[in-house]
Amino acid sequence: MFAVLKTGGKQYKVASGDILRVEKVTGNAGDTVQFNEILMMGGDKPVIGVPTVAGAAVQAEILEQGKGPKVINYVKRRRKHSSQRTKGHRQQITVLRVTEILAKGAEKSGVAIAENGRGFDVNAVEAAPAKKPAKKKAAPKAAAEKKPAAKKAAPKKAAAKKAADK
User: Fold this and answer.
1) What pLDDT is attached to residue 35?
2) Mean pLDDT of the residues in the chain
3) How far is CA 166 from CA 153, 155, 159, 162, 163, in A?
4) pLDDT tens digits for 29-38?
5) CA atoms within 13 A on the CB side of 156
6) In this model, does residue 117 exceed pLDDT 50?
7) What sign does the CA torsion over 101, 106, 110, 112 have?
8) For residue range 141-152, what is the model confidence (pLDDT) as tens digits?
9) Nearest to 68, CA basis, from 145, 121, 111, 10
10) pLDDT for 163
């Protein structure tokens, strides 16, 4: 049996016992994490999720936390500009060993959900959208005393015509 899971913006086809290098997942070496975004389950009866397979999960053990290979970006402008720029980056990665693929019962497993990055849990945000508090109705305002409207002054052009007619 295999599964296609989604983590870190990428998709991985995994089977039990596979070792993966994925973008950072919170946890320490030896911890067990669970991926709930399963896009497809394969085997005797393949199941394709719409967009995910309900109740399915992949459990994995964290083997180590580390950094990936260094990627160097070198930019040089030619001709009359003598500028050069070098940037390097090493992506935080987690090495995992897939221990189990669950077709059903992911909610009851009791294993921590895999969280990408710095503890941001995508599943928790989708499951419980923030609700805005209900607005209280304002108390009715006391009827203000009506003042007589001030008379508007005649426009200047009309006043100038009247003066010219005299």
Assistant:
1) 93
2) 82
3) 19, 18, 11, 7, 5
4) 999 999 999 9
5) 0
6) yes
7) positive
8) 665 566 666 666
9) 10
10) 65
Q: Is the pLDDT of residue 159 over 70?
A: no
Please tell me whether residue 55 adopts helix, strand or coil conformation.
Answer: coil
Half-sphere exposure of 49 (CA within 13 A, CB side): 18
Q: Are 41 and 56 within 8 A, CB to CB?
A: yes
Pair 20, 5: CB distance under 8 Å:
no
Q: How far apart are CA 166 and CA 41, in angstroms?
A: 97
Is residue 34 a contact partner of residue 113, using CB atoms and an 8 Å limit? Answer: yes
What is the C-alpha separation between 101 and 92, in angstroms, rounded?
Answer: 25
Query: CB neighbours (10 Å) of residue 8?
Result: 16
Closest CA to 112 of 34, 7, 59: 34
